[in-house]
Model the fold of this input.
Amino acid sequence: MDAKKILNKIGIPRLIIGSLFLIMLILAFILEIPMDGIAKDILVRFGMNAILVLAMVPSIQSGIGINFNLPLGVIFGLIGALVSLELKLSGWTSFVVAIGVAVPLAGLAGYLYGVLLNRMKGQEMTVGNYMGYSIVSFMCIFWALAPFQNRELTWAMGGSGLRTTISMEYSMGGILDNAFRMETYPASFPKFLVKFLEIVPLGLLLTFAILATMIWVFSRTKRGTAMLVAGNSEAFAVSNGINVNKQRIIGMVLSTILAAIGIIVYSQSFGLLQLYTAPLYVALPATAAILIGGASLSKAKIIHVIIGTFLFQGLLVVAMPVINIISEGSMAEIIRIIISNGIILYALTRKEGGA
Amino acid sequence: MKNISKFYGENQVLKDVQLNIKEGEIHGLLGENGAGKSTLMNVLFGMPVIHSTGGFQGEMIFDGKSYAPKTPTEAMEMGIGMVHQEFMLIPGFTITENIKLNRENTKPTLLSKVMGPSLEKLDLAKMKEDAKSSLKKLNMDIDEFLPVAGLPVGYMQFIEIAREIDKTNLKLLILDEPTAVLTESEAEQFLKVIKSLSEMGIAILFITHRLDEIKAVTDSITILRDGTFVKSTATQETSIVEMAKLMIGREVETSKSSKKDIDISNEESYFELQDLRVRMPGERVKGVNLKIRKGEILGLGGLAGQGKIGIANGIMGIYPTTGKILKDGKEMKLNDPRAMLNESIAFLSEDRKGVGLLLDDAIDFNIVVTSIEIKEDFIKKVGPLKMVDKKEIKSHGEKMIKDLDIRCTGPGQETRFLSGGNQQKVCIARALTLNPDILLVSEPTRGIDIGAKNLVLDTLVKLNEELNMTIIITSSELAELRQISHRIAIISEGKVQTILPPDASPEEFGLAMAGEDIEGRME
Done:
């Protein structure tokens, strides 16, 4: 294998982001920033975002391309969480109820959106983008008028309309992150295990692992195979008796449901529920992450999700303290925006997929 | 034109072709699809495709001067006009604007005196007058300010010609299959117009495969076959039968694959098409009736654009279809590929790369995918889930690769990287795996080399013999149809022209392909 082949195999986005990540890591080491803090942050950020990135997979596999309408699923995830908060649930019940409310709603929305997309084939990504904007704007009205009563959720003054950010500290905050952590560890626990459990958000990562496995298993079933074929070549699928429209709807339903679950998992780790325009900022980082991971507009695998989320979130986590020490102000945020948009731009200019 | 040769890459598509056209004569150019007619015209008209692929050899003399156009503009300046097979009209413009396109009559204005002639005002009155007189020469009476969009195709054809004859210096007009889109009465009027044009002193080069038109209207003809010059003669000295023979030419090579004998007298039909109509763009089928026996190989032949490709696509339901399809006396559901597959009817598309293969997937997956979908083969049940059995797929893929001699790096290789012949073998392997009762094969040997070609044909014969599979093969290559089929149906203008035995004479095939009534001519 010559250098060019190796370069092709790695892919330019992965190469650039990977080396930036390494440089930042080395800088962090030189600047004596505590490494276990960084490791913990990277793992948490990975777990928070990975499911949202995973939501891109069925959408790309079914031939729709990148799901820029991720906010649709996110909104139903938020509604699920809000219902659970309104009922003043806490702990695992609160988490399970949130998921239980969100999933069917997101599934229905994904179905209707899939039907819409089947009528405008070839324009999915443009439609998705604007659909995302519209639905978020529409929901801004909903959040302001929704009849939630819990004083924790509504504005302190006036008592109606939901707040922009809602604390989840007393409901499901950190429930997955801390699933395997204890207040005090038994003395019999070896020290390294305690340290491991403190650094690694095991529950968070396990949730992702379970969902990723489900998507992977699905892709190996007859139904999943049909979806992959439909996404790969519509003409081929039609001539082999596969109902392409149905496969695309399945892909969109899965994607929307994953987005709903993804935002609930994200919020419990973050500790805050973000309403109003916040869902707008979900699609771009997820898109950037999966593309960095090596996916293209027509091919995506679970491994792309893992690599991409790790590199993208890892870079952001390390860059923040390093750049804050080296320079003034909010450079890290600016770099995040440049990277995510730059990578999306790059991916849109090339059609064929990476490894 | 003398000794014109043209290579596309390593393929020689024209070999020492001669063409002599006298002033004011109508000259017919005849040949099958792929005989090199269009390439020759592109050379003559200086189309960019010729020069971007390395130019041509030979010399052309036009009007006593040596002539080698690099662009169509140069050809036009010399007085050569061309009417293309596809219309080159702007639908939203009026007839006048189309006729005068880029040669508009203009009047100077104040602005143009300052800024140059490209800002001169259009002289609409003059343009209208010119357009009217050109149309008049064609016996056309129509409002010159109608937009072109929405006019009948026949009119569009005349407008194209009007545009050419409006050029004052026109000496040679090339017409590329002008009557293909016309109705009979339009074609008749059109031929009259051509005659009157030639009386005006304009030489006309007329390309068509309708032999009777050639016979009726031309003064002399040139026949091409496989890129070589066959014969040039005065029209009176030849007959339609002879022309047909020269066009098809080659006798079939003796390599008649050892096809099995079937009982031709058995009239019982196994698969039947009744008034099948398919709306496939460029390959419309306009009412085909066919009866096919069990275990037969039926060839579908004919020229491009006549509808032979549309039949298999219509049966599979890939393009909108009406009519009746019966298998074993049972009526099939139309426009539903899945229903057809469920009835054990499979299809190998002529569009190998677009429809026939998943280019980004592995060979073994390509081979089994239809069987997974339709027959649920290669599936193992894990609880409620129907999981795809990767191991079995791989071993089946390896077996097929060995059986069909697919040249590849292994069953995991993506089909995109295979050669055309090996890609076709993958398609055939898929059909083998599915093992249907009826197999529809379209253009199985298009774009593949001779070795692979024979293997593909032999495999089809083997399927027919060993599994008694009924095969309907569509091909533009008459030789291969004659090699493997039991009967050959020639499709012309969307209908079955005639059904011939494979050992019928070249004249019969030539006449049938040109849409001629054989009975009448052979007497």
Observations:
- The CA atoms of residues 367 and 429 of chain B lie 6 Å apart.
